[in-house]
Amino acid sequence: MQELAPVFRDRLLVSASAREHYGAAESWISAALPDAVVKVRSTQEVAQVLAICNRHGAPVVPFGAGSSIEGQVLAPEGGITLDLSAMDQVLRIGAEDMDCTVQCGVTRQRLNEELRDAGLFFPVDLGAHATLGGMASTRASGTTTVRYGSMRELVLGLTVVLPDGQIIRTGGRARKSASGYDLTHLFVGAEGTLGVITEVTLRLFGIPAASQTVLCSFADLDAATGCVVEALQFGLGLNRIELADDLQMQAINGYCGTDLPVGPTLWVEITGSAPAVAHDIALFQDLAQDAGAVRVELATTPDDTARLWRIRHDALYAARALRPGIKGLSTDVCVPLSQLPACIAAIKAEIAHTGLMAPLMGHVGDGNFHLVLLFDPANPAELETGMAISRKLVELALSMGGTATGEHGVGLGKKPYMQAEHGPALDLMRRLKCAVDPSGIMNPGKIFDL
Amino acid sequence: MQELAPVFRDRLLVSASAREHYGAAESWISAALPDAVVKVRSTQEVAQVLAICNRHGAPVVPFGAGSSIEGQVLAPEGGITLDLSAMDQVLRIGAEDMDCTVQCGVTRQRLNEELRDAGLFFPVDLGAHATLGGMASTRASGTTTVRYGSMRELVLGLTVVLPDGQIIRTGGRARKSASGYDLTHLFVGAEGTLGVITEVTLRLFGIPAASQTVLCSFADLDAATGCVVEALQFGLGLNRIELADDLQMQAINGYCGTDLPVGPTLWVEITGSAPAVAHDIALFQDLAQDAGAVRVELATTPDDTARLWRIRHDALYAARALRPGIKGLSTDVCVPLSQLPACIAAIKAEIAHTGLMAPLMGHVGDGNFHLVLLFDPANPAELETGMAISRKLVELALSMGGTATGEHGVGLGKKPYMQAEHGPALDLMRRLKCAVDPSGIMNPGKIFDL
Ligand SMILES: Cc1cc2nc3c(=O)[nH]c(=O)nc-3n(C[C@H](O)[C@H](O)[C@H](O)COP(=O)(O)OP(=O)(O)OC[C@H]3O[C@@H](n4cnc5c(N)ncnc54)[C@H](O)[C@@H]3O)c2cc1C
Ligand SMILES: Cc1cc2nc3c(=O)[nH]c(=O)nc-3n(C[C@H](O)[C@H](O)[C@H](O)COP(=O)(O)OP(=O)(O)OC[C@H]3O[C@@H](n4cnc5c(N)ncnc54)[C@H](O)[C@@H]3O)c2cc1C
């Protein structure tokens, strides 16, 4: 701290309120405060902080927008929280190459504003205000991942500050490379436990010429997911394919004042050239009818489309409104698509025994779904039930070849499941951690214990 | 060896001819023989061999089909070559999930035969007979990478035997996961230096309903690449987009008996639904005309299509026929698309001074191209010129933000360029190597020296 103060002056925060702001979780996990917060402005400054902390063995917790929900930015061992949000420059937009390089603190919203004039966009559209460095670090995804992939597929290269302050570049601007170990993917999803990402090179895409949204209601979940499997096999130009269950639809009707059928519902967006979209939409309607769709509603105007997607985006708030004052725990398993109906059915049967309210929304094209478990963490019995359901769901998903977390990451919340999910591979992760961060200063206590 | 002989009996080969077969390179690099070859049949057997070799510090060189061209399967330090080609079971095809799991020795040709009935295919279609374990290990790609990605994007999970014989699983069958470090990508592209991949889980795709091939000739390379940039920005359903230069076209006319214009030429394949293909082909023709195409030929029948792609696939043989008896060195740089015309122009200017014949073919949608440098490695002056051009090209590519190897990998041939390409990140690769393979038995001397 003595070494940091003269360098960072008023960008070193030690007040209780600052520490509380940075050490509080966007979730059911309890707060854990850092000793201080440093607001950095450049890769060089990050290197400076890390070199100092590494010398003293002081923990460093990278912080983008703090929107992660598994306690990733908490500081259970104290130390320094590194606020990267001021590193917010879009450094380069390559229109011909359809790529860009940004500083880690740029949000995806900001990036897309800057891209619009070039007719390009970056597709990972998660439900929160988040930074691209944070999104890379949690391997984030969104509603369009079914089409464009997640941060795993879309990060081409990184600038990273290693724990000892050394600066490296990984990957590059070439679309593909067979040159050496894939360091980029080592840092994507590492949740700040291996170093600090300061710059990110991303793939971009042209804005499609045409797009059409459909809302489809089904009698049961099997019918809805069956329709999704077929649409994927036909290779339709699916841009988004989102699922809500009956309770979620009820919540939406209550919250949004809509009058939609209270049954399993798909939001589907198909994009491409105008004739491709027309063809694929017609085919999708046939598939939906064959699968027993109860109602198929095509958005007819841009306003209509915006309305349907606004309803989708309000789903979390609608869910929470079922039980005002309760934030809930959002589960995040992802399973092979063929297992999705069985996985959902089994967990719903468990939930039915408990009386817990747990509306469901899913990125169903990827086999990823969230239940918002609306329990009161202050009530020990409810907490126990909620945690038991969360645990049960992860066990189910793992037994079906799935993963404990499709997109939210591990942090503290999913740490207990890592041994079951990875087995002996977890030891290899520990070995990598020790090789990259021998003093163990980077975001200690996250993903796994050493 | 004493420990291996009783276990593997006639599957342990020590004859000179066997050692020569496995220690010869598909390239200009000189042979380097192993002490013995072991033909394994299962993950357990691989684990057995590795545990024994690890105890004795004996080098192990994994061997799939041996088609790699940078000396990856040579044994410069002797030891055991591990022939994995008998591990050739397709273990599981998930039609609903559009994925499969295969043993590492399955070739892509075999896999696609097994998939055809399910209406599915695996898209990485490189120019050689290769195994999926070898393709994963070199991070291979092919003509359809512009649409579907390379092995980097298409491997979902692996079974890996670590150097000490421990068996781990990485990734899984879920389409996405934010759970822990990305071990899958650590092994994809590691060229057998970190362990042996014994099983691979792959993404599959539905065979598109329609497809159309076009051959387009241009007056100059800039016009051809300009047309590619536009087609990509319009988001056309490009499945393949391959470029040949004038010398390559001359070679093709000579070898295939065709009468195609001797100028820069694009092979384009567009796939999708029938109306999407019709729309995109029309748009592509417009773009090509605007870019100044000299001739645009649409394949009209399936035979015609097959003929055009056969010509493309024969390109390497056609190139070599320009100078019979000479295999040549195939360069492999990959640069951002915007840099491609400048990169090609600069290297062609260098080549012009030397009198070297060097026809060009490229996976131009990815910015990756190959020059076949037709020099005689037995002639010292020619060898020097050839190597100087190869080096100059890598330097050019790196200065343009590109990579020394888009798809062939590093092996021994590209090792001299790793420091220039990766800088201090190369040290991190070395640290990872030491963490995963502390005795240094796995494919020693490849990618980098320790
Ligand atoms: C309402 C809501 C909706 C959400 N919807 C989605 C969704 O649809 N999809 C999804 O994937 N997630 C979703 N999330 C979770 C969250 O938004 C993501 O995890 C996001 O990627 C976090 O980004 P951030 O900038 O807020 O990172 P932070 O929360 O600040 O940090 C996340 C992790 O990354 C590390 N980190 C941050 N920046 C860096 C850096 N530059 N270098 C190294 N490490 C760094 C941190 O130490 C921490 O471990 C949602 C969250 C909320 C609250
Ligand atoms: C005519 C020709 C055309 C080619 N065209 C292309 C092309 O279009 N695209 C392209 O990418 N490449 C191409 N190549 C190069 C080559 O085919 C690829 O590198 C291919 O991926 C090698 O596969 P393989 O099974 O032959 O592997 P091998 O040559 O046997 O091995 C390659 C490397 O991987 C390691 N390895 C092999 N199997 C395993 C395993 N199971 N676990 C761990 N390590 C393993 C080996 O030790 C070695 O380092 C071409 C080669 C030729 C000769």
List keywords for this structure.
homodimer, Uridine Diphospho-n-acetylenolpyruvylglucosamine Reductase, domain 2, Uridine Diphospho-n-acetylenolpyruvylglucosamine Reductase, domain 3, 4 domains, 7-stranded antiparallel β-sheet, 5-stranded antiparallel β-sheet, 17 helices, binds flavin-adenine dinucleotide
Structural write-up:
The structure is a homodimer of 450-residue chains. The first copy, chain A, is an alpha+beta fold and 450 residues long. Chain A folds into four domains: 4-83, Uridine Diphospho-n-acetylenolpyruvylglucosamine Reductase, domain 2 (2-Layer Sandwich), CATH 3.30.43.10; 90-206, Uridine Diphospho-n-acetylenolpyruvylglucosamine Reductase, domain 3 (2-Layer Sandwich); 210-313, Alpha-Beta Plaits, CATH 3.30.70.2190; 320-407, Alpha-Beta Plaits, CATH 3.30.70. Chain A contains 17 helices and 18 strands. In chain A, the strands form four sheets. In chain A, strands 15-12-14-13-17-18-16 form a seven-stranded antiparallel β-sheet, sandwiched between helices. A five-stranded antiparallel β-sheet of chain A has the order 5-6-10-8-9. The longest helix of chain A has 20 residues, at 380-399. The interface between A and B is large, with 97 and 98 residues. The structure holds flavin-adenine dinucleotide (2 copies). One flavin-adenine dinucleotide is lined by residues 26, 61-69, 72-73, 84, 104, 126-128, 130-131, 133-135, 137-138, 140-142, 191-192, 196-197, 316, 407-409, 443, 446 of chain B.
